[in-house]
Amino acid sequence: xxxIKNFTDNDNIRILxxxxxxxxxxxxxxxxxxxxxxxxxxxxxxxxxxxRQVICELSKSHVTLQAGAMQWMAGNVNATTGVxxxxxxxxxxxxxxxxxxxxIKPEYTGDGTLVLEPTYKYxxxxxxxxxxxxxxxxxxxxxxxxxxxxxxxxxxxxxxxxVAGGEGLFNLGITGEGVVxxxxxxxxxxxxxxxxxxDVLKVDGNxxxxxxxxxxxxxxxxGKTLIGSAASGEGLVNVYRGTGKVLLAPVH
Length: 252
Prior knowledge:
mainly beta, 4 helices, single chain
């Protein structure tokens, strides 16, 4: 048996969201300050620059983490590589190489408590049932997920999507029933959620941070002709077509 005190029951900690095995918390103020850092700490608090952490309750689900994300764990917690043989290792290595994610994502099992490293980024907890069972992530967004979810490399619809769009040819896709934990540069309150029903979304720039795997992603001219694109001043745009959702950051 173990007890954890002065953590989530601390007045300085606010619970932001809870889904599945994950709880996202936020430190309201940085209390470990010196006279030299007090001014910086004050303005960080005022401008929503705060430390955030994710707590994983393994009794609800085993979890898979981005490599190096664990800070501490209590109780019956076992760490494994999540590799189920040579073929699985080679598949993970290839997927990690093409998506830019860590090749091996450790899997934690048991029924204890696992706490991730604090971050100044924003934590998003997404239930894949709200995404039709599949989501595609922008590079660097993945932090953790419930271990029953499957990872795969999702190739862009065509080569021009990567070359002209200024992004890689592959993204990390996650499928199944469960919760994925994302580490975002943008708070939930700033993200625009667009739901398409057999329709199209065109974005001038890499503002989409996540989208349904059911959507076709291409890069196209903003106008029907080169002259039309030049006249509009937009040129090439990222296009999401079909039925699904897109999370869009309004600013970069």
